[in-house]
Amino acid sequence: MKIVTVCGMGIGTSVLLKMNTEKALRALDLDGEVEAADIGVARGMARSAQIVLTSAELAEEIGDVSAQVIVIDNFTDSEEIGRKLSEALG
To answer: Is 7 annotated in the active site?
Structure first.
């Protein structure tokens, strides 16, 4: 499973979200490739991803992609990330 974490600049916040997503995946015993990106690059990366994690402000900017876009409220909360990934994967 490929997951893209997205923030506005792709430098700090998306990397933080990436690290916490990897932590959540380990806790769920799931395998996944997680990549951090800025909003400009994320649109292209989302074409080959299954899931995009981002903030509510950027979710609509990603546009129409085949990946499931999941809004994360607290990028530092691996429990929230894990819960939302579990819900999405059903």
So the answer is: yes
Q: Indicate the pTM of the whole model.
A: 0.92
Does the domain formed by 2-74 have CATH 3.40.50.2300? yes
Each residue's pLDDT expressed in tens, for the chain with a length of 90 residues: 999 999 887 678 999 999 999 999 999 999 999 999 988 888 888 889 999 999 999 998 888 888 999 999 999 999 999 999 999 988
Nearest-angstrom CA–CA distance, 2 and 68: 11
Catalytic residue of the set 3, 4, 7, 45: 7
Torsion of CA 84, 63, 39, 7, to 10 degrees: -20
**Domains of the chain by residue range:** 2-74
